[in-house]
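Propose amino acids for all 139 sites.
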């Protein structure tokens, strides 16, 4: 079933690249469902991260937050709690929280993401988190 999951992920990436957000969302959702059914939690988390990003762009903020939280939970439960993938999931969670105007929890998540990015020497991630954590960053 991994081949089917990868096919949906590839279709989603292609649709996103071509600006077909609805098709991308459908393919990522199918990849997430197949990953869950087949017991591939890291592929599921990857698909959920992309769903979070697409949902936030479409102003489906609660869904975006839920998908980012699910992705982070999967990474944590599967030994990836300190990975760059986890940092990316936390980033999406913080973005959703900011969009929902939940500044206090967003700040805590930005700090956690920053720590992971710093530990992995991902300068762009650290810089984004620092900008979001700046006292004048309106979220």
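Proposal:
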């Amino acid at each position: 079933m991994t081949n089917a999951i990868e096919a949906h992920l590839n279709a989603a990436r292609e649709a996103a690249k071509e600006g077909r957000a609805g098709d991308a969302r459908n393919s990522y959702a199918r990849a997430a469902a197949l990953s869950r059914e087949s017991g591939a939690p890291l592929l599921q988390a990857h698909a959920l991260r992309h769903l979070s990003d697409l949902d936030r762009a479409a102003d489906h903020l609660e869904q975006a937050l839920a998908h980012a939280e699910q992705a982070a939970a999967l990474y944590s439960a599967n030994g990836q709690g300190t990975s760059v993938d986890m940092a990316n999931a936390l980033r999406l969670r913080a973005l959703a929280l900011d969009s929902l105007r939940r500044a206090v929890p967003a700040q805590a998540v930005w700090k956690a993401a920053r720590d992971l990015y710093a530990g992995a020497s991902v300068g762009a991630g650290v810089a984004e988190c620092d900008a979001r954590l700046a006292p004048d960053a309106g979220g």
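The longest helix spans residues 21-38. The two ends are 40 Å apart (CA to CA).
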